[in-house]
Write a structure and sequence with these properties.
This protein is mainly β. It is built from 2 helices and 15 strands. The protein has a single domain, classed as Jelly Rolls.
Length: 231
């Protein structure tokens, strides 16, 4: 027997279906915009103390040993408390490059920044940013050294540093500093504490991962590492 549905009931039924569909869509997981998905921030505050953060890979020294003692560390000096990522190995040869690379950051055009605090070091001090790294022997490097009171940009090829430019600058060891690198195509712009330092072109490396770097006996804290991929 066929059921007769009045126009009023049909309208109510259609409205109920529309509302149900709208509610179901609202409950579905939303997707981040392309821009949001390309921005990554590491403040290390949710990571395990005494461990290397997930996705961070320590390189190797020229003699095969791990390139430094990198670990999440608690400190009241953190810019975003309570943790920082620290390189704590306070000894090393002149050309012992203590570094780690971040997995899943393969990119070409980047806006990369980090805050760093020099803690200790007699032969070396401070640290820097790595980008377009094909591995732990080939990458670009921008670093700040309070002992030498300068900022430099290098290309590291097969484990050997080649200085591209130097900039003499007073670096206070009592405070955090921000190092920022922007690269698009061959153009590299580096700033230190929001002051422009370098603007140049280099075509040695076309794509690669990002990372952090210290040298020799430098003990350094890092915090608020931020990457925006502009590819």
């Amino acid at each position: 027997m066929a059921l007769k549905i009045s126009k009023h009931n049909a309208l109510i039924t259609a409205l109920s279906i529309w509302l149900w569909c709208g509610s179901a869509l609202a409950l579905m997981p939303s997707h981040r915009s392309a821009t949001a998905a390309e921005v990554q921030l590491w403040n290390f505050d949710q990571d395990l103390r005494g461990k290397v953060p997930p996705g961070f890979q320590i390189g190797t020294l020229f003699d095969g040993r791990p390139a430094g003692d990198w670990q999440v560390t608690a400190t009241d000096k953190a810019t975003s408390p309570p943790y920082v990522l620290a390189q704590l190995q306070g000894k090393g040869a002149e050309h012992a490059y203590k570094l780690l690379l971040v997995q899943g950051t393969e990119s070409e055009n980047v806006d990369l920044r980090v805050k760093l605090l020099p803690i200790d070091g007699k032969a070396d001090m401070g640290g820097g940013l790595i980008w377009r790294a094909t591995d732990d022997r080939n990458y670009y490097l921008a670093r700040a050294n309070p002992l030498e009171q300068n900022i430099r940009i290098y290309r590291v090829v097969k484990g050997v540093r080649h200085m591209i430019q130097n900039f003499d600058h007073i670096i206070d060891v009592r405070h955090w500093h921000q190092l920022r690198v922007r690269m698009e195509g061959c153009n590299i712009q580096v700033s230190f504490d929001e002051r422009p330092v370098f603007n140049l072109c280099d075509e040695t490396f076309r794509k690669g991962r990002i990372g952090l770097w210290t040298k020799s006996d430098a003990v350094t804290y890092f915090d608020d590492l931020k990457l925006q991929i502009a590819d």
